[in-house]
Design brief:
About 55% of the residues lie in helices and about 15% in strands. By secondary structure, the chain is an alpha/beta fold.
Length: about 200
């Protein structure tokens, strides 16, 4: 069973491409972002440490005692040290759960590949767990428009996020394959490209 990483800049469509891979092929899609969100819910394995680290710095908890992720994001993305602290809390737990899921899938033998979706696939070291890494490429202008329309992000917020991510050249250099996903790319084209790479 192959372990494949899939990454790309924000708004590139990596989640969409990963969902197509899982829909059309015997591929298990693991989203590290989804794992992290689940683990930061009340009672999750990252919750207590995150609360202890950041509760004094912002309105971290809502009325139900759940983490206010928007406030937490605003805090850590404005301070590299705080972002590094958050990552040091959450990344080990995410990696442990990711590895558990991979091993379970290997034992069950249902899938030909596991596809790990992560925006920080190189920074987190997840790439070392992968047999190959796919980079989903979309032009910056397209990504900006997607983020404005689908998430309501301001240009300032988008610029800040883009500046913090790897450059397109770096993504391409460190990846094994590129999947193009601009506005002219159809589902059929994406499925064909996934088939070329995965099978």
């Amino acid at each position: 069973m192959k372990v494949i990483g899939i990454t790309g800049g924000i708004g590139s469509g990596k989640s969409f491409v990963a969902s197509l891979a899982a829909q059309f092929f015997p591929i298990l899609h693991i989203s590290t972002d989804d794992i992290a969100k689940e683990q930061m819910k009340k009672g999750g394995c990252s919750y207590k440490a995150v609360v202890e680290a950041f509760a004094d710095e912002c309105e971290l908890l809502d009325g139900e005692g759940e983490l206010n992720r928007a406030e937490l994001a605003k805090l850590v993305f404005a301070d590299e040290k705080k972002l590094a602290l958050l990552n040091s809390i959450t990344h080990p737990n995410v990696l442990e759960e990711m590895n558990r899921i991979i091993e379970l899938a290997r034992e069950e033998g249902e899938y030909e590949a596991v596809l790990i979706e992560s925006a920080l696939i190189f920074e987190s070291g997840i790439c070392e767990r992968c047999d190959a890494v796919w980079y989903v490429y979309s032009p910056v202008e397209t990504r900006v428009e997607r983020l404005k329309s689908s998430r309501g992000y301001s240009e300032q917020k988008i610029k800040s996020i883009l500046d913090d991510q790897l450059s397109e050249e770096e993504f391409v250099r460190r990846s094994d394959a590129v999947i193009y996903n601009d506005n002219d790319t159809t589902i059929e084209m994406l499925v064909m490209r996934i088939s070329e790479l995965a099978l």
